[in-house]
From TrEMBL:
Subcellular location: Cell membrane
Limits of the Integral membrane bound transporter domain: 365-489
Transmembrane segments: 37-55, 61-79, 86-105, 111-128, 140-157, 163-183, 378-396, 408-437, 443-464, 476-494
Family: Belongs to the YccS/YhfK family.
Cellular component GO terms held in the UniProt record: plasma membrane
Source species of the chain: Nocardia macrotermitis
Name of one Pfam family that matches: FUSC_2
Protein name (record): Integral membrane bound transporter domain-containing protein
Positions of region (Disordered): 262-285
């Protein structure tokens, strides 16, 4: 990709100003539709062992059961069969990471050695979580638990017993997260499709020429790509599952028809019309956007409510799109999670440099904390590891959010100290904070940080009551150290591969478009072509957004990005969709 040179100094100053802007940093977003499920699972997986340990007088061991219990926060967007596998790997990773941290703590008293080992583990956690696409909360929980475990007072002989507690907590988390399958076995895939329908409804409601259309198109492509991927993960081993997959596929087909019509040129004589209920009788109404959007919204609400999947009769235009009777199961053709993780360890992989920045930043923050005489440098390690994210702008925003949230959170913890003298009160405070964190983390990180701080401090107190003033001061100092180091690392070592990633994404999109045109011309277009095109569109937009958040002075090819995205979305509107046999 050729990037046009510009006045470097002026461009650098302009980009730095954009990066340092706090616009939108404190804006509240809509709450995630999975927060109740993750909150309830987390409360049960954390609370049950804590209650048992309190009742038996072994609360100092609660840290280890909490380490396994926090695995319950993962995988809530996956169908249950895929969730079972993913959570198994999450529990394995938690046990392995805590095992390395505890072994290090048992072998050496050197704070420097511990910090270096924990920093390396933080980088590995970032690399593996990103490559495996495990989703929220990503590497955050792993880094927090592993960093804290590395500074626990533990003897080497105690490590196996402690790991058994971590494993027990993880097994309980697995059981708790899988239990809803007995009541609503299809909830995850229905929620994924509901998000795609809701995103399409927002696009359909936008008038032509609205500046928000470009972002809405990306949201639809991303949500639809995720929904199709989730539906493909539904096992096709029973008629009921095949019928479920077919019904959800029908809804996605209709959503894509509506998205295609909404994106068409209104001046074109052969532009697609907006399908509505009237279209079933042969006379589509091209102007009834509101009715179409309302129908999509209604279907999304039905899916979220757990009711029967709405039945959709295909329209004439959609019947022309549907060729064949079997939906391709291309999951096997795509790289598995294990393959993606192994490839991520190559120095040339996109995530390797970011993971290296995380490890270096975490090590630097921990060493600075030791030099300042702070008793718990693992908080600095954790802070730096969590704040070094995809680009400088995101890191800066998250840094400010974390500083504000932690400052308020430290004050909240100090105010709660008189209430936590009894072990039962400690457990109640920890669980309450966990519930509030799940309810607020998707809305804004700074609000969640207010409650993450006292929850983390209370978990430290499980091992034994410590002076609240020293505990709060150490937390605040380490947060400031970790935040300062993270920002310096991001500004001093910008992710220059982000711009290379844009070029690679554009070339891949061009290649996929060429294959799609050829497949359409020869009548061989299938779901694999659609999947690749959606993935390429999502990658172009994500890589462009990440590159735009770096401050150094290379200019993005904005015109080419916009043109390529427009061509990709137009091609999506023309490609057919293959459905399962039950969808006929």
């Amino acid at each position: 990709m050729h990037l046009r040179p510009v006045d470097r100094s002026a461009r650098t100053l302009w980009r730095a100003g954009q990066v340092l802007s706090l616009r939108g940093a404190f804006r509240m977003r809509p709450v995630a539709d999975t927060w109740r499920r993750s909150a309830v699972c987390g409360l049960i997986a954390l609370g049950v062992p804590e209650v048992v340990l309190v009742a038996t007088g072994h609360l100092p061991l609660a840290f280890y059961t909490c380490a396994g219990g926090l695995c319950a926060l993962y995988g809530h967007g996956l169908p249950y069969a895929a969730r079972a596998r993913a959570l198994g790997w999450v529990v394995f990773g938690m046990v392995a990471g805590v095992g390395v941290a505890l072994t290090t703590a048992g072998l050496t008293d050197s704070a420097v050695v511990r910090v270096l080992v924990l920093a390396l583990l933080a980088g590995v956690c970032k690399l593996v979580c990103d490559a495996a696409r495990i989703g929220p909360p990503g590497n955050v929980i792993f880094t927090f638990i592993i960093s804290a475990a590395g500074f626990l007072p533990v003897r080497l002989a105690e490590v196996p017993a402690h790991l058994e507690l971590v494993l027990a907590g993880g097994v309980l988390a697995w059981v708790v997260c899988m239990a809803p399958a007995l009541v609503r076995p299809h909830a995850p895939e229905r929620l994924a499709v509901a998000r795609a329908l809701a995103a399409t409804a927002r696009l359909v409601r936008l008038p032509a020429g609205d500046p928000a259309v470009a972002r809405a198109r990306y949201d639809v492509a991303a949500a639809s790509h995720t929904a199709w991927h989730t539906v493909r993960l539904i096992p096709g081993d029973t008629p009921r599952r095949i019928a479920e997959s077919a019904g959800l596929s029908r809804l996605l087909v209709r959503a894509e028809s509506l998205a295609a019509a909404a994106q068409s040129d209104p001046s074109a004589p052969d532009r697609p019309v907006l399908p509505t209920a009237a279209a079933s009788f042969g006379e589509p109404d091209p102007l009834d956007r509101a009715a179409a959007a309302d129908r999509l919204t209604e279907w999304a609400q039905v899916l979220r409510g757990g009711h029967r999947v709405p039945e959709v009769d295909f329209l004439i235009d959609e019947q022309d799109q549907i060729r064949g009777i079997a939906m391709q199961r291309d999951v096997a053709a795509a790289p598995s999670g294990v393959q993606r993780v192994l490839r991520a360890f190559r120095p040339s992989s996109p995530g390797f440099q970011l993971a290296l920045r995380v490890a270096v930043g975490a090590a630097a923050a921990g060493l600075v904390s030791i030099a300042l005489g702070v008793n718990r440098p693992y908080w600095a390690v954790m802070t730096a590891a969590v704040l070094i994210v995809a680009n400088t702008a995101l890191s800066w925003h998250r840094t400010v959010q974390r500083l504000v949230g932690n400052l308020i959170g430290v004050g909240l913890f100090t105010a709660l100290v008189p209430l936590t003298a009894h072990p039962v009160a400690l457990v109640v405070v920890a669980l309450t904070c966990q519930l509030i964190v799940e309810a607020t983390i998707s809305r804004n990180y700074w609000v969640a940080s207010v409650f993450i701080t006292p929850m983390a401090l209370v978990m430290v107190e499980f091992a034994g009551v410590q002076p609240a003033g020293h505990l709060a001061l150490d937390r605040w100092l380490d947060t400031c150290v970790g935040a300062a180091v993270a920002v310096l690392i991001c500004f001093a070592v910008p992710n220059k591969r982000a711009f290379d990633r844009v070029g690679l994404a554009l070339r891949e999109l061009d290649a996929v478009l060429a294959r799609a045109r050829e497949a359409l011309r020869t009548g061989r277009a299938d779901n694999d072509v659609r999947r690749r095109l959606k993935a390429a569109l999502v990658e172009v937009r994500e890589s462009a957004d990440i590159a735009a958040g770096e401050w150094w002075s290379t200019e993005l090819p904005e015109e080419r990005i916009v043109a390529s995205e427009r061509a990709g979305h137009q091609m999506l509107a023309q490609l057919p969709v293959r459905l399962p046999v039950a969808a006929r």
